[in-house]
Amino acid sequence: MHMQLDGRLRRVISFGKRKVFRYAKKGIDMRIGKQDQAFTAIATSDADSITVRGHNLCDELIGGIAFTDYFWLLVIGEHPSPAQRKMLDACLVAIAEHGLVPSVQAARMTLAAGPDAWQGAMAAGLLGMGSVVAGSSETAGRFLAEVMAKAEADGTDIETAAIASLHSLKERREKVPGLGHPQHSAGDPRADKLLEIADELDISGPYIETLRALAKHAPGIINRPLPINVSGAIPAVILDAGWPLEALKAVPLLARTAGLAAHLYEESMRSIGFIMSHKADIAISYDGKTSKRD
Ligand SMILES: CC(C)(COP(=O)(O)OP(=O)(O)OC[C@H]1O[C@@H](n2cnc3c(N)ncnc32)[C@H](O)[C@@H]1OP(=O)(O)O)[C@@H](O)C(=O)NCCC(=O)NCCS
Known about the structure:
Elements: E1 2-5, E2 8-15, E3 18-23, E4 43-45, E5 50-52, E6 55-56, H1 57-61, H2 67-76, H3 82-96, H4 102-113, H5 118-127, H6 137-154, H7 158-171, H8 189-201, H9 206-223, H10 230-240, H11 250-269, H12 273-283
Antiparallel strand pairs: 1-2, 2-3, 4-5, 5-6
Helix pairs in contact: 3-8, 3-10, 3-11, 4-5, 4-11, 4-12, 5-11, 6-7, 6-9, 6-10, 7-9, 8-10, 9-10
The structure holds coenzyme A.
């Protein structure tokens, strides 16, 4: 079967319910999605110069800008204000390192098994930064935005929307993003410090208000102590500082890359990767089927 799409003749191949469009004629390039935004505003270069976000890399940036400012400039396209710089710096320091957490274990065991593959070991660590631990800032940030949007849509205040959202999470038996910590059950000191800095810098806004409303009502609704954790505090303070929601994940990822670098360097000098894998082998018992020989 043939059909006319974008003015060109394509063959339609069906795989069950799925339809795949193939060009009928050979030599026509494949196009997927809209093609009308063929621009990047981040960097460009020619034989003599490299321009990043409108600044000459060698004349203005190298040796002229600190890395936290550069990170903000790269992602957002503007220099941070002093308060934004301090808040981002604080978030990066807060989440860079927390000992032998799963992302670090994955990275160190990978380096022990492949000492020549730092990039693979680093990637293994970053891949473990998901919605449960280490990378959960993004999930928490999106949840805060959802609660704020609910307040606006319902024409209520943030506290009312937070209470309704907590009930809805409870009904669905889902965890409250950004709250709870198995080790810091009395309160995550990193979260408290970040919120304190945000207050000092006077950047507290709707995200922090939403987080505080959730933390106030969660224990009563979920029926257990649920302190704000670092992955709840990071999105609240950095979004109120003006960081975009869509780039939230970059903050813990960049920070943990620095922590992983320390662990990979230590791993290459004094390996514990195989000790961890040995201890896991001892800690976890086999309860699968026995073989016929037994
Ligand atoms: C981090 C996390 C995985 C720890 O969970 P945990 O190891 O079960 O922690 P605890 O042992 O303290 O939990 C005790 C109980 O509280 C519950 N609980 C913990 N955090 C919860 C949350 N955010 N919302 C609802 N219930 C929660 C647990 O399910 C557990 O319930 P159970 O006894 O009925 O099984 C959990 O708090 C969570 O998923 N939080 C949301 C994601 C997040 O913010 N992650 C960032 C961590 S820095």
